[in-house]
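Exercise 7. Given the encoded structure of a 213-residue chain, write a plausible sequence.
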């Protein structure tokens, strides 16, 4: 296991995605409001999609290719990377179907509920699979330089939405994790995050209608 591979951000992202899946379940099973209206207008759905896209795009662009290079001659492990990419594609397909349902006046809440269940099962299963099978490979064969490249690519994908996605990532994190995440930020981003971005995020009711990000 490589001490140079710090998985703090990876685990924080996974925890945040699971947190948002729980919110999605509450929205789509609520009996006192139209879940289609809530989801179509809630900042929480937009932020969830942006964070997930940034995370999966960085893995597809930078993490899996580096692992594939280092795992040459290990067909079983290389096959796992193909499965990781296929799981990403399947999750994206469900998200697109949810958005299609939200924009279709003829689609009903039951269909949305079915798709939300499929997303929860698919993403939760993927996160668990990645943690149990792929992350040990990351720590076993990836170099510090390759991990740094992946981290930079993920930061680039997040960059434009950092004022919302960094507080989103920190939401609910324990103190040691939050300290490690904040310590990774350049000084200007650290100052902006602590002074402006986190307070602004704290008052955002992101899973209520009319809070689009």
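Solution.
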């Amino acid at each position: 296991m490589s001490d140079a591979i710090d998985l703090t951000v990876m685990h924080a992202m996974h925890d945040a995605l699971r947190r948002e899946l729980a919110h999605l379940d509450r929205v789509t099973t609520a009996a006192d409001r139209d879940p289609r209206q809530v989801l179509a207008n809630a900042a929480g759905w937009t932020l969830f999609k942006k964070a997930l896209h940034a995370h999966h795009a960085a893995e597809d662009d930078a993490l899996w290719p580096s692992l594939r290079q280092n795992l040459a001659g290990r067909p079983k492990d290389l096959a796992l990377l193909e499965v990781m990419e296929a799981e990403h594609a399947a999750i994206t397909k469900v998200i697109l179907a949810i958005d299609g349902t939200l924009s279709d006046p003829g689609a009903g809440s039951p269909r949305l509920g079915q798709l939300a269940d499929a997303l929860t099962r698919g993403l939760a299963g993927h996160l668990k699979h990645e943690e149990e099978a792929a992350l040990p490979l990351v720590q076993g064969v990836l170099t510090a330089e390759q991990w740094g490249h992946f981290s930079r690519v993920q930061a680039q994908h997040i960059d434009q939405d950092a004022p919302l996605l960094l507080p989103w990532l920190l939401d609910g994190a324990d103190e040691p994790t939050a300290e490690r995440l904040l310590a990774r930020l350049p000084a200007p981003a650290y100052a902006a995050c602590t002074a402006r971005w986190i307070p602004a995020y704290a008052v955002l009711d992101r899973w209520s209608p009319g809070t689009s990000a």
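Remark. The chain has a mean pLDDT of 93. Students should compare their own answers with the one above.
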